[in-house]
Specification:
By secondary structure, the chain is of the alpha+beta class. Helices cover 39% and strands 20% of the residues. A six-stranded mixed β-sheet has the order 7-17-18-16-9-8, with helices on one face. α13 (398-409) packs antiparallel against α14. The protein is globular and about 90 Å long.
């Protein structure tokens, strides 16, 4: 105990002049370093983890030193992760634990605001499916879904095959020499742990191949409408949500208190020319500004802002979709776009901004859209989108909902939960109803509403005619 206490004292070294506390593993429990309301220094804590521990439990313990009750502000966590592919394993287990912690404590797996960490969590059904495809393609049991990394020098599949044999993920039969996969070949944790034993060039190339396959698997799931996005947030960023219409329907088994609401909301995510010039005025980089691209005899303009000078990464704004999530490199921007003055970009920016209110990107660039030509709704690149959200006592009308959705989505009815906040501050949580299902659903809910209203009226008549008998029934 004395040695542990001495180690804790060494680990809790506090540099008073710089307000820095260095915590060792021995000091990762039992101390409080949060921005407590009772202490003099109530500034926000910045917790830097130089090396993530093997155990997710130990990581949570360390994070708990600066994130405790009675604090003024929550801490900011900074994780230092090298570009070595095998180290992604430590980020993966911590990310999965943090997301599950948010689900347990808040009922929402994103409640801990770990959106940036979620990209490190590969241990899900999409990651396991991608790993299975990768391993089978390496031993030639299945065709590869994506090509190998282009920057790898040598025979990718042969060298990776040799490396995986060395770490025990691929077995070689003694007599026949046939390659077989390990029984846990699609175990994400084991895969990320074992590739640490491979050469740096091999493990980075293999992890890049796995990441590309995972992206292809997720893209295919999105294309087929089977991708689980969890809860879809609208109006949380730069999007503007406006309520267009709301219809209420009484539900079976309830009086006037039980009802469902079908909200029609419009979501706008674009950026006007005035907003673009205002954002441009705040930029000071030499390569920041407006760029124009020529495509199919039409020009489009974008606004870029450098956010990472070391890697030359830029934030991109578009007139129809606003700020983009993905950062672009300067090399990619120069390949497609040419820098121009603001006066030269104004007309192209305004044209796309106005047309994207009703026309998708396909129709804007090509002149027509395959989905729109057959009467289907295409929302690719649309600035203004319309959503129909059903909320309230949804379970009471679930049978009617299944009858409407089944012909569209098949036997496996998949619904998307949405959470939004309108411009006037109203919060709505419900299910998104496809546009082609709104009319049949309204017909069914209207019929149910009329029947329920007739039942309520009959009950009120009986109460007027026989008030004593009704009171006796209620008391009984």
């Amino acid at each position: 105990m004395r040695e542990v206490r001495q180690e804790k004292q060494r680990g809790e070294t506090l540099l008073s002049g710089l307000n820095i506390a260095i915590i060792s593993e021995a000091a990762s429990s039992g101390i409080s370093l949060q921005a407590d309301r009772r202490v003099k220094n109530q500034r926000r804590r910045v917790h830097m983890t130089l090396e993530l521990p093997w155990s997710a439990d130990r990581a949570i313990q360390q994070f708990g030193r600066t994130h405790r009750s009675n604090q003024v502000t929550a801490p900011e966590y900074v994780f230092l992760i090298s570009e070595l592919a095998g180290e992604q394993r430590f980020a993966s287990i911590v990310a999965k634990r943090l997301e599950s912690l948010g689900a347990l404590t808040h009922g929402d797996r994103r409640a801990t605001e770990t959106r940036d960490l979620s990209r490190f969590n590969f241990d899900n059904k999409y990651g396991r499916n991608a790993l299975e495809i990768v391993m089978k393609s390496i031993v030639k049991l299945d065709a590869p879904l994506v090509p190998p990394p282009s920057n790898f020098k040598g025979d990718f599949f042969r060298e990776i095959q040799s490396g995986l044999i060395g770490v025990g993920l691929i077995n070689v039969e003694d007599r026949s020499g046939v390659l077989t996969l390990d029984k846990d070949y699609n175990n994400i944790g084991k895969f990320l742990n074992r590739i640490l034993g491979m050469e740096v060039q091999q493990q980075n190339a293999l992890f890049q191949y796995f990441s590309d396959t995972l992206a292809a698997v997720i893209q295919e799931a999105k294309k087929n409408g089977r991708y689980d996005m969890g809860i879809l947030d609208l109006g949380s960023g730069d999007e503007k949500v406006k309520k267009v219409d709301c219809r209420k329907f009484l539900t079976p088994g309830y009086t006037t208190s039980g009802h469902v609401e079908l909200h029609t909301v419009g979501v706008e995510r674009g950026m006007s020319w005035e907003e673009a010039t205002h954002a441009w005025a705040e930029q000071n980089g030499s390569d920041d500004g407006f760029y124009v691209q020529m495509r199919n005899n039409r020009k489009t303009a974008i606004l870029v802002k450098e956010v990472n000078t070391k890697k030359r990464l830029f934030l991109v704004y578009r007139p129809n979709t606003g700020r983009q999530v993905k950062l672009e490199t300067y090399g990619d921007i120069k390949k497609k776009f040419k820098k121009v003055l603001s006066e030269d970009a104004k007309q192209h920016w305004t044209d796309q901004y106005q047309s994207s209110a009703k026309i998708c990107s396909h129709a804007y660039w090509r002149g027509n859209c395959k989905k729109a030509s057959v009467g289907l709704l295409c929302e690719v690149g649309l600035r203004c989108r319309t959503y129909h959200v059903l909320c309230g006592s949804v379970l009471s009308v679930w049978n009617e909902l299944e009858e409407v959705l089944s012909p569209v989505s098949g036997s496996n009815v998949k619904v998307q939960i949405v959470r939004l906040r309108t411009e006037d501050g109203q919060r709505i949580v419900g299910l998104i109803i496809p546009a082609n299902c709104v009319s049949p659903l309204i017909n069914k809910l209207s019929t149910s509403d009329q029947n329920q209203q007739l039942a309520v009226q009959e009950q009120q008549k009986r109460q007027l005619l026989h008030p004593q008998s009704l009171t006796h029934i209620i008391n009984t």
